[in-house]
Structure formats: structure tokens, C-alpha cells
Amino acid sequence: MTQLLLTVVGADRSGLVSDLSEIVAHYDGNWLDSRMARLAGAFAGIVLVDIKSSKVEPLKADLAGLEVKGLRVTVTDTIPTTPQQDEGEAALVVHLVGHDHPGIIHKVTATMARLGVTIDDLSTGLREAPMGDGILFEAQVQCRITNATTLDDLRSELEAIATEIMVDIDLVDRS
Fold it and tell me: What Pfam families does UniProt report for this protein, alphabetically (predicted)?
């Protein structure tokens, strides 16, 4: 069996996921994991599928055919892994909210990278602030810290930049 990562992008329309999943199912592919969203009128997603090695090339050919329907699919071969948490790692959820302005995600992720924190999942969005007080930016980051740093160090660094970039940041240990 081979695991493939499919990256899909196209103008949003009804039936995009159905078209994609039909081809995967036709080749007896197993849809393992995915993240998909509509952003600014476009549709984007990533899908991890498991498929027999002998069916990879025909699957790729059929997926390329989705371009005529407005969906561009990029196929990346992956190395199958078993999710596991290394000893000494702490799993965290970082929630951030503040008035929207450029650079928030860069400041937070640069701090995490410098401390050796690995991001597993990142979700962001905008919403109206209560009582017409502008637009709020929200982010939720699922991440892991390794032996390279400590939870206290990460908390301290994020609290310091929270003041600088004027956001509230909460950390929840999910280990």
C-alpha cells in the first residue's frame, strides 16, 4: 500500500469533494484524513489516501482529468508513519485572539520555531468584534514541544509577544 497526499485547489462549486472522492473510491483508495475549506470563493484542501501501489499511476492520471472541471490536484508521495508522541514531548493547544493586523501569525510561529515547537494543526479566521469594535483575528494551534524547550519557557515567550502584538494567548496542555 502507498500513502499519497492530495492537494486540491479550485473555484468553489457544488460537487468538488464528490468528484474527488469518486475517483479515489474507484481505485479502492482509503480516504484517511483531510482538511478542506472554502476561502475567498476558492476551495482548497489536503487529503491523505492509502491505495494499492499498482493503482497509483492510474489514479494520478484520473485526478489530473479533474482540471477540466476546475479542480487542480497535486499528488505527493509520502512515507507512511504511525502517529505517536515521543517521550518528553508535551502536546498543547494554543488559542489566540486579538484585533486583526498583519504579522500576528508570523510572530507566534517564529517564536515557536525558535523554541523547537512543532505545529500539528493551525486554524485561523476573522470575526466581528463585539459591539462593533472592529475585526478580531483568531487562531488555534495544536502543537508539540520537545526536549528543546519547556512548557514554562514557551508560555513565558508567548506571553511576552502577546503584549507586543496586542493579543490574548491561552495555552492548554493536552498531553
Answer: ACT_6
Q: Which of 147, 2, 143, 157 has its CA nearest to residue 79?
A: 2
| Bridge partners (DSSP) listed for residue 175 | none
Q: List the strands of the sheet with 30-39, edge to edge.
A: 30-39, 42-51, 2-11, 71-77
Query: Average of pLDDT values for 71-84?
Result: 81
Nearest to 116 by CA among 89, 140, 98, 136: 89
DSSP labels for 99-164?
A: E--TTHHHHHHHHHHHTTEEEEEEEEEEEEPGGG--EEEEEEEEEEE-TTS-HHHHHHHHHHHHHH
Pairing assessment for the beta strands 30-39 and 42-51 based on DSSP bridges = antiparallel
Question: Which cell numbers in the block locate residue 23?
Answer: 475517483
What number of residues does the chain have? 175
